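Objective 1.3, modelling of assemblies. Example input:
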Amino acid sequence: MMKQLIAVVKHGLGLHRPGRNLVILPDDVFLVSYPKSGNTWIRFLLANLIFPEQPATFANIHRLIPDPTDSAKRDFDRLPRPRIIKSHDCYDPRYPRVIYVVRDPRDVVLSQYHYHRKLRKLEDDSPLEKFVTRFLAGETCPHGSWGQNIGTWLYTSEGNPRFLLLRYEDLVADTPRELAKIVAFLNLSASQQQIAQAVERSSADQMRKLEKTQTDKSGLTKGSRKDLSFVRSAGSGGWRSELPAPMAARIEAAWGPLMRHLGYEVNSQSEAARSQVPGVRFQEKLAVEFSRDLTPKT
Amino acid sequence: MLGQLKYAVKYVLGLDQAGKHYAVFPDDTFLVSYPKSGNTWVRFLLANLIYPNETVGFANINRLLPAPGVLSKRFLRKLPRPRILKSHETFDVRFRKVIYLVRDPRDVAVSEYHFDLKKHYIEPDVSLEQFVKRFIAGETSSYGSWWEHAASWIAARHGNPNFLLVRYEDLLADAVGETGKIAEFLGIKADRERLQAAVERSSADRMRKLEKQQADQWTGTKNTRKEIPFVRAAKSGGWKETLPRQSADEIEAAWAPLLNCLGYELQSPQLDSTAMPAWVKAGQPL
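Predicted structure (tokens):
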């Protein structure tokens, strides 16, 4: 009862986190990604571009590019429009415009593994192998599996002009070019100089510096292990040296066609192993059922 | 201010409407569909199957097979578990076990048009042709377009043993057999007799009679135009007579791949499934 009364008071002051009850405005833009796919970096990039008078930090990012589960309702109400809102959700029909950032799942799994160690959700000696199994089943975060998250967005929204798909790898390779795509998508005007400044202010080095001094001011890192950093390698393709081949093969076996569709190189042998993935046989049986219905009725 | 105060009191007592913000339990089962796809009929079928001693009607369906959106959080919390809940949501990762009911969108469009007229959601002078254009764009519903709805669930769960895909058309053609499949999925042991009884008690005729008596006791029909019934044709393929050719063509052109995948025959057969992305055709659970 007391807890609920406190909640009511917080509600009155707009201090509660709106979560799923966030009132979405027709010009809102959602920055969506699966966790550990560069979302925080792009939040910094966009915040630094849109609010140049106020360099983004770990202490203010939840006010500049808010997150419904982590920012107060008041933060949302104070933002100039159009608001840019961070999300890790699977497809949601209420989101009017979406920038989806996808990252190679073989890198995502490593990044998530390190992050969970930092958050003390995993022991140091916890086997990566076991984590990969849970990652494939979508059990390492509350946002579905990597495949479900991107799959629900792609299948529903690919080709829709209100949906912009970006790859983390492309952002790493040529940040100004990809940021310019976002600028065009948002109908903003930004000079090359402004873009360069945003990139500079959001560099991995700069973010590492900020992390060191602000680690307890951000919901992302508060109370986590200080010996492991939130901003890690900030690169792509780390899995080639860090992820043991059999584990990479399991990820490729699970999501090969989808990864290929996104332009990620997939070892064909792994894909051939698909039939051994649990559930695939069942799936193929269903596909046969449908194809029966597909044959022209005479 | 008074409104907010009223809400605050309701909130503290747990009497506020759950909306999208309610606790989902891992042992919940959800009956999910796009609106106007036979969801209410299946709710009746399941309620009659599970509670053979109750007289299932519109007056008590929200209690027997609850729709969380219009119920209070306290009511939902107090339901015996495992719960079976109705939903029109697009893919929600928290829904572990799902019966997904899908219906030919050409029939859905016609049904939604009549329902929206009944509910005063659209002006009486909106034509079916105009409505279909907005239907395709996903503007007639807060749950996205038919395509986005079905695609979000199928992309995420197709092939998962905890996902049962049921076509409304199959249910119409063999209600007893399909209800049997659903019963099995729910772990309900039901012989043919019990299945048949549930089907008979949920027949369109019986539901029409119940609607006449109880229309004002159910959120779905309260304060709506009485001359337009909620239980309408209760059949499949009605679009062939009522939907203008042009509108049917527009739906097919927009959604051919998924129509094909679900076995809904196109009147423009040149729209085949070649537009289906390779990773979907590979047909693999994500």
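Chain A has one domain: 22-294.
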